[in-house]
Amino acid sequence: MPSAESTQASAHPSDPVLPTREDRVAAAGSELIGGPIGRRALLGTSWWTPARVIVLVAIGMFALGLVQKAPCYNGGWFFGASSQYTHACYSDIPHLYNGRGFADGLVPYFDKLPGDMQYLEYPVLTGVFMEVASWLTPGSGSIQHQEQWYWMVNAGMLMVCAAVIAVCVTRTHARRPWDGLLVALAPAFALTATINWDLLAVALTATAMLMWSRGRSLAFGVLLGLATAAKLYPFLLLGPLLVLCWRAGKWRAFGTALGGAVVSWLVVNLPVMLFAFEGWSKFYTFSQDRGVDFGSFWLILAQNSSDPLSTETVNTLATLMMLLSCAGIAALTLSAPRRPRFAQLAFLIVAAFILTNKVYSPQYVLWLVPLAVLARPKWRDFLVWQACEVAYFLGIWMYLAYTTSGDAHKGLPTDGYHWAIGLHLLGTAYLCVMVVRDILLPDRDPVRRAGDDDPSGGVLDGAEDSFVLGPAVRPEQPVAQAVGPQVEWGARRPSGGSL
């Protein structure tokens, strides 16, 4: 009998791919809820569609993440610096309610803040999100009570973002809806969801990816521009998309996407740029001037050096490393035997930014979760990476507990924290290696092995190449091949030569 790895569930190329029939880890995990789906199961005939199930699971996991923050909600944020670290429940949200002037009714970017920060150090759309949450926060009671309310209001808004992300990932690969469970069940996703406001940008990026998969280039561009107005990283996706459209000759689609992104970003940013430029630019100058910080290999080098590199030197070297990574991804895209999938390159470019950046806050894992699921929907590799990220999540809080507990030295010393950083870096690099392997060996790619070409690629899906560095093959078509009592989709017809 064939293994779960080698059999595909679909009896027709348009049928959904069921993880419990193609993934050993998913099949083993399904024993907790009754085992793998049977041959005679009625699919799509119940109210319990994949999207509805996955959203409910995502909300349930999000709620568990809120419960994990309970020790801080009940006093850890207010009565002692170290307790919020020993309980691993820290969040920026309640601290910045008062620290960034929302409690005093200050207008972000326009009103100066007391102290050294001067202005809010977040992109404009995130600032709007924070401001709207402050409007919904009751202004009565003690400042502690208001901060608790502010965190709860933001948590409710961020839960909506989490549900949007789960739905978008579920629907981006039409034949693989159950891959959305990887997002819904990701432990690092639940643990970091309410540390900061990153889920807003992640939700907009996931929605943009869904629009591109449906061939809606303008909607993709508009949403990606809005995502970039909330966080800087989404604009990176335009790089691999440019190279993919170059290889496929889809310049019109890329131009439409780029135009939509630029216009929507300007619509959000231009009013603040014109009337409060100093406040608007704070995010960009803060990012440039910020020194080496938590989570990066730069911190390991700095803390083990008697003469650490200057911030300017680190900025230069990090930029150079990122440019080299971009060049490598571009070369891989143009020379791969088969055009890479958009989701694969989107994951690689954001992962490269995370690996080379001078800071890695624990919530940055949220950027990668939906992209990782779309790039390599393989439970084993995803869970290996998630285990590394959870270890880092615990490591940074234990390290901060150690540095804030005085002579008590509760937590993780510097050397132990360096190991946690190394684990995070290795876990992310491991997933990158697996994605690159799938690009170089398309038959190992779980998405293409099931008979698809590039379901997240929109106009790129099934398109012929117009520019390639080296030999390439046509997108392969699935051929039904009987395997025991099931039908396997994934045997290949010869392409008939190179293009």
TrEMBL record:
Subcellular location: Cell membrane
Regions crossing the membrane: 47-67, 149-169, 181-212, 218-246, 253-277, 314-336, 382-402, 417-440
Polar residues biased stretches: 1-11
Lineage top rank: taxon: Bacteria
UniProt-annotated stretches for the region Disordered: 1-20, 477-499
GO CC annotation, single: plasma membrane
InterPro entries: GT87, UCP010361
Pfam family, one: GT87
The keyword Transmembrane helix is annotated on this UniProt entry: yes
One GO molecular-function entry: hexosyltransferase activity
Topology of this chain in the membrane: Multi-pass membrane protein
Keywords (A to Z) from UniProt: Cell membrane, Membrane, Transferase, Transmembrane, Transmembrane helix
Primary localization: membrane
Family the entry assigns: Belongs to the glycosyltransferase 87 family.
Protein's name according to its UniProt entry: Membrane protein
Organism, scientific name: Streptomyces fumanus
